[in-house]
Amino acid sequence: MNLTLYIWRQRDRNARGQMVKYHLSDVSPDMSFLEMLDLLNQKLYESGEEPIAFDHDCREGICGMCSLVINGQPHGPQAATTTCQLHMRKFKDGDTIYIEPFRARAFPVIRDLVVDRSALDRIIQAGGFISAPTGSAVDANSIPVPRDEAETAMDAAECIGCGACVAACKNASAMLFTAAKIGHLKHLPQGQPERRRRVLSMVEQMDAEGFGNCTNYYECEAACPKEISVKFIAEMNRDYLKAALTDPNYGEKKSSSK
Amino acid sequence: MSRFVRMFHTSIGCKQIMAVTGVVLVLFVIGHLAGNLLIYAGQDALNQYAQNLQSMGPLLWLARLVLLAAFVLHIVAGVRLSKLNHQARDVRYQVNAFSQTDPLRKARVTAAMYMLQTGLVILAFVIYHLLHFTLGFIGREGYQLMQTLPDGTERHDVYGMVIFGFRQSAVALSYVVAMLFLGAHLVHGFGSMFQTFGAHNPVVVSLVKVITPIAVAFIVIGNCAIPLSILLGLYGGGGS
Amino acid sequence: MILDGKVPPGPLEDKWTEYRRNMKLVSPANKRKYRIIVVGSGLAGASAAATLGQLGYNVDCFCFQDSPRRAHSIAAQGGINAAKNYQNDGDSVYRLFYDTIKGGDFRAREANVYRLAEISTAIIDQCVALGVPFAREYGGLLANRSFGGAQVSRTFYARGQTGQQLLLGAYSALQRQIAAGQVKMHTRTEMLDLVVVNGQARGIITRNLVTGEIKRHAAAAVILATGGYGTVFYLSTNAAGCNVTAAYRAYKRGALFANPCFTQIHPTCIPVHGEHQSKLTLMSESLRNDGRVWVPKKPGDTRHPNDIPEDERDYYLERKYPSYGNLSPRDIASRAAKEVCDEGRGVGQLGRGVYLDFRDAIKRLGRETIAARYGNLFEMYNRITDEDPYEVPMRIYPASHYTMGGLWVDYSLMSNVPGLFVLGEANFSDHGANRLGASALMQGLADGFFIISDTLGNYLATTKPDPVGTDHAAFDEAETEVRDRLQKLLNVRGKRSPDSFHRALGSIMWEYCGMARNAQGLKKALSEIPAIREEFWRDVRVPGTGEEFNIALEKAGRVADYLEFAELLCHDALTREESCGGHFREEYQDEEGEALRDDENFAHVAAWEYQGVGKTPVLHKEPLVFENVELTKRSYK
After folding, report:
1. Label partner for C456 (CA 20 to 30 A): which of A32, C308, C502, C625?
2. What number of C-beta contacts closer than 8 Å exist between A and B?
3. Mean pLDDT across the stretch C92-110?
4. Interface test with B, best of A170, A233, A239 (most B CBs within 10 A)
């Protein structure tokens, strides 16, 4: 296959970036999308240019590191697929492909196609956990969890934290990511004691990071490689409303978000 | 109160304030329409309804205040959220594509993208409408029409004012266009409301799917029917 | 030197209790004074950092990825073992211990393995408390499945994403400590050297991968949890970023590297399809429950698999191992696949693959049942190969998966360098020569959650290390070396990409030091590796500078370490003149091609001491004493 590629190149966070055009031939349809970029980098090395930086690690669709927007779609055209699991047979010989980084104010570009997604970690730090110090646990079977609840928790827990939801959202909102973590923990009995605090705190952190908010377009759900449902966003909204109206301390301290 | 201030300052809280005020506004629009449809019951019915409303006194003002507050909050929250959303993506994509394939969703997304714009058009229309039919700063001639009752007293002739107003094609068409914008605004807003309050179980989702087009169609068709039927001479005694 | 594992005295089942009874504690006030470095944020690293932070230590945690949640523990599919005996099927701590030590072909330290089995139950409790959504029965209790190498059902799982869910559990505990200010996380930061002061590990030198900043970090102790070295073969099931650098740097600073030749090859991976391939994807071993493995009887048969009649197919696993058949253990199934491909009967474009056929299972059970059991795996296979396993047999081939070898540690998980602790896959301790399925996750969390907190405290309370500043001469020296080395890589200005050298090294390693090894091949590898290394230092191209985000520089540094480490691996393989577990020496097999272990001469841990690049390392032995199990031959016929 022969391809024309337009790829975002940017030296560092503060530099101006631009789309650069490349021609790449001898692309095999069996290659993964990232292997196609490996091949391009190989050619760039050979011609003495600097390779294109892009994030990747496990290359089997689970670590959440790969993060490209391909022809306007995070992780490319195939549904429920990360970039590393996308194969070139989904494209045609002679295609023109535009490759851009995930775009959000909360995801500054580090270089080329690599962005800084540490904002997602900080949302988790705000409350995306159960405070269970090592050694304090009771026997694993002492609290039964209804199977359906456990399955719903798992549906949400499948989130790989790639940030495609943010990239796909017209508002660069991290609602689906945040809702997935809240949804995972709220469906488990162990998650109940901190439930109110968790949702209030994580939502404010999400705002403080500069993500947009949900306008209910559901582009996030369509882009999510793990097909996390927007029903978790609804659940988060409900949990937030309940918590904001009933938490005895909410409103005492001024909001930290701007 | 500080609780609500804090809610207003979070994205979800702000959205929920928008949704609550949206509910108030939608209910008003439906009530308003139901009242206006009395026009088809004749001059007396509409004018009597208008007179009843006027005679409610403080209650009317309370309703107006609530409505005004909802309206202002709805706009302030909407503008605030739009601004935040705009800032959240500082560099735009070179290529944009939708991942959605479902045509209904696509339509909703398109509507959703222009919520601020359709909202602003509606705002402009509401101001115009108030100046026109409520305060009479525009179209003074129609506003001054009075109906003389059999006992000799006079009352405001709302019926006549409306017929007079909508006989002018520019006026009638501007109302129709505004209602189309309102429809677009509601196509997304109506369903969105449920999601924002957290109602997303299969029953609600399918109900919303059915109710949204019905409710929006009722509001748009109902509201457009009055100016169109008058303009086309189908109602209100033909041309003058 | 005879190495001492410092195993506590007493009966096997009391050793850990005994250790804990006698260990010294650090008071809460003193814990605050200690800074601890944890390198790596996978299951072992994240759980260790979280636990130590919770205890009150000041922890600095490092990972090269953009978030600790990316660590490769996340990719584990199958499950985690624990001797809970929830199924009442006769499981016990002893049985898990025995299965593990036997599965490791009797090349692991008894006391360590027993402790692992003992702690396994607490891990499940802890993970459930952290919100790991394990699979459940309708009654709300935890579900179990059975796994290779065991007769009981003791594996806990969360769909096919057990590793992900466990890692996210440990990660969430870590995030909580970060929020509490007890752990400082350094992402996109790579450890490039270990600093040893007066014989104790007291710090590391790191490079910030975004800015290129080289930084010194001093601490009371250093914990490495940096994973294995499976990517020495270039193609493996490991993540692209996995590397040996941190462990190898420690080795160069005096830590001993134990049993590097114990590498595990997983039999069911999607075969290589082309020269640009970067990754081999693992297909769960469970597929062998219903799939039948075969190749054509005739070499070079290019017919479509569905056109090959029954009597021209060779179901070689069923033929050779009638009682275990398609469910033979990993190492045995892997070698058998290699054998038939060597005979020219391999399938697929490159002739390195065998069929895993579901035709008969679909006929017997119906397509729906098969879809319910393996639907998501079939889909994944289809995504990668564009072939439909319901219609055409899958093609599979073995691939490098896990490394049992690692830095040598004693019972307290401390290396021979005092103050340097090694956890998880990075150490050598628990799996012997072969790891059983669902045991890696168990080890990572046992080390991180439950062992290191005790043993580190004991070390600190016993040695009371004085504060060391980063201005110490040892830091100067280490930083200079790191800078010189980076500069050297930048200065070569050759023509070839670092990746091309990695690929060349990988193909040699796979060829001569992969599934089956022999003295002649290993010697050949040992002569070729230095040649590649020289070529590397003459012709590698690293564009850009050291003061920026530079993927070429990152990669080149890791490849350079592999080019030295590979030699150590081959050397160990050459020296271990027996076949055991994942290490199969063709010279040591019986008439039927089965592995011949040599317990008389090789029942020891081979720990290697660095002598210099290209120089033969010095061997230290830790004899393995088996007081509680009888050494038997593994037979699966």
Report:
1. C625
2. 163
3. 95
4. A170
Q: Packing angle between helix C551-575 and helix C245-252, nearest 10 degrees?
A: 60
Which pair of structure tokens corresponds to residue A40? 């391009």
Q: Is residue C256 within 8 angstroms of chain A, CB to CB?
A: no
CATH number listed for the domain at residues C473-602 = 1.20.58.100
Cβ contacts of A41 on chain C, cutoff 8 Å? 497, 499
| A242 Cα to chain C: minimum distance (Å) | 22
Q: Which residues of A touch C383 (CB under 8 A)?
A: 78, 81, 85, 87
**Which chains neighbour A (Cβ–Cβ under 8 Å, 3 or more pairs)?**
B, C
Contact C228, C264 (CB under 8 A): no
Arithmetic mean of pLDDT over chain C: 95
DSSP β-bridge partners for residue C403:
C263
Q: How far is residue C415's CA from residue C407's CA, in Å, rounded to a whole number?
A: 7
Higher local confidence (pLDDT), C437 or C304: C304
A258: how many CB neighbours lie within 10 A of its CB?
A: 8
- CATH T-level topology, domain B2-87+101-231: 3 helical TM bundles of succinate and fumarate reductases (1.20.1300)
Residue pair C324/C636 in contact (Cβ under 8 Å)? The answer is yes
Q: Which residues contact A252 (CB under 8 A, 6 or more apart)?
A: B2
pLDDT tens digits, one per residue of C474-526: 999 999 999 999 999 999 999 999 999 999 999 999 999 999 999 999 999 99
In whole angstroms, what is the distance from residue B15 CA to residue C517 CA? 65
| Active-site residue (options: C216, C249, C330, C395) | C330
Distance CA B147, CA B162 (A): 13
- Residue numbers in A near C277 (CB within 8 A): 31, 35
Matching residue, tokens 């600073």: C253
Chain A residues touching B14 at Cβ < 8 A: 213
| CATH superfamily label, C12-262+404-463 | FAD/NAD(P)-binding domain (3.50.50.60)
Q: Which residues, listed in sequence order, are joined to residue C60 by a DSSP beta bridge? A: C37, C184
Q: Which of A163, A144, A147, A150 is nearest to A63 (CA)?
A: A163
At the topology level, CATH places domain C268-400 in Flavocytochrome C3; Chain A, domain 1 (3.90.700)
Give the three-state DSSP class for C566. Answer: helix
Here the tokens at position A128 are 């995306």
Q: Judge whether C359 counts as a catalytic residue.
A: no
Cα–Cα distance measured from residue C215 to residue C210, given in angstroms and rounded to the nearest whole number:
13
This complex has an ipTM of 0.97
One-letter identity of residue C608: W
